[in-house]
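Lab channel / #folding
Pinned by the channel admin:
"Please post every new chain as: sequence first, then the structure tokens as a reply. Keep commentary short and put observations after the output so the thread stays searchable."

First post following the new format, from NK:
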Amino acid sequence: MMTDERAEAPIVRGRVKWFDPAKGFGFILNDQGGADILLHANVLRNFGQSSIADNAQVVVSVQSTPRGVQAVEVIEIIPPETENRMVLSEDLGGVTLEVLAQLPLLPARVKWFDKGKGFGFANVFGKPEDIFVHIEILRRSGLADLAAGEAICLRVIAGKRGQMAVAVYCWDVAQQTQTSEGTPEAAGKEAENGDLRLVGRR
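Reply from TO:
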């Protein structure tokens, strides 16, 4: 029955107007116009994310309620185009996007993240080093905020200021992401035995 209901729900593409994890909801601007679409935190969590970046493109199935149109399922999230592409160019040291995409996913936990300051740190499981997480990297990954203790997966390089994340995935999403290096769990075992200063497939 649930499958039939989802199949009948209209599919809408839009852009995130804003989302506040503390309030537990936000709104999507429908690309076809009309009223804003309510996006509840529970619906987003079912997709595997606890937050979503403003201006991220999103595909959702919706339903009409007495209070307006609401998203009932998130189907796809496309990170927003960053307005400042050069903010981390020096730290990345000229590494191409193709190379970054080949880095293994490393399971990690958020140490702390301050959205106001624009950065925070995480620790890869089994490794004592802090991994720098910049808010622009978070936005490029389609996220808006991180909570202390949250389980995530990272792609990491050795930047000029130390170990830094170049991509951030929520744990549930990362488990579904197929990479040439294997699962996040396998990547974690590799991290325990190897070096995080990766710049490509070995």
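NK: Confidence is low (pLDDT under 50) at residues 1-5, 178-202.
TO: also worth noting, The first helix runs from residue 2 to 8.
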